[in-house]
Design brief:
Layout: E1 9-12, H1 17-27, E2 33-36, H2 52-67, E3 71-79, H3 101-112, E4 119-129, E5 135-146, E6 162-164, H4 176-182, H5 184-197
Helix pairs in contact: 1-5
């Protein structure tokens, strides 16, 4: 059985303002106030894991140990079957040290070349860690297709090139509430909330 979250303060283990906003909005209905690892001056650990789960757990544990507060971390990325699953866990690295996702999206398009397979999926793993080292992890996925050129200025990361299955707008064009209702991160969070926050 999953461990219940009993506090009212949580570290969001990210320096990404887009992720912070999404994750803080997810925990707010449970009366939990969120503070980012960036705001606390915590360093970003090197992501040395070989899976989304390993990297999410690594980030959550680093933040909880440094802050002595429970910490919630996300590791997420774009998985493109025609690219052998890339960029996958290296999604942020494709954007380079400047976090230039226009560059990253152009790289996806370039590597796809004239491939007719434009399938893609977003994967997110959320890991909730406590200072004693206990971790609970949950995975969410959303499937769709890739579009070029990028569309929309909402969202962040690869959102402008991803259209979810059955939809017509990219995540970059969608109203944030509509995106949150179906996103990979929201899917993972629903599982986490049922296990650790609800009831």
């Amino acid at each position: 059985m999953a461990r219940r979250f009993a506090g009212d303060r949580l570290v969001i283990a990210t320096h990404n303002q887009g992720k912070l906003a999404e994750m803080a909005a997810l925990v707010a209905p449970f009366g939990v106030s969120a503070v980012s690892a960036g705001a606390l001056g915590l360093p970003e650990p090197e992501e040395t894991g070989d899976s989304f789960e390993a990297n999410a757990e690594l980030k959550a544990l680093a933040a909880t140990r440094a802050s002595a507060l429970p910490a919630l971390a996300d590791d997420s990325g774009l998985v493109v079957p025609a690219l052998g699953g890339a960029p996958g866990i290296y999604s942020a690295r494709w954007a380079g040290p400047e976090r230039d996702f226009a560059r990253a999206m152009a790289l996806v398009e370039e590597r796809l070349g004239d491939s007719a397979d434009r399938r893609g999926s977003f994967v997110a793993v959320l890991s909730l860690a406590w200072p004693d080292g206990h971790v609970e992890s949950f995975r969410g996925e959303v499937h769709g297709s890739l579009v070029f050129p990028p569309r929309g200025a909402r969202g962040f990361g690869y959102d402008p090139i991803f259209v979810p299955t059955g939809g017509s707008e990219s995540f970059g064009e969608m109203d944030p509430a509509a995106k949150h209702a179906m996103s990979h991160r929201a899917t993972a969070f629903r599982q986490l909330a049922r296990a650790c926050f609800s009831g």
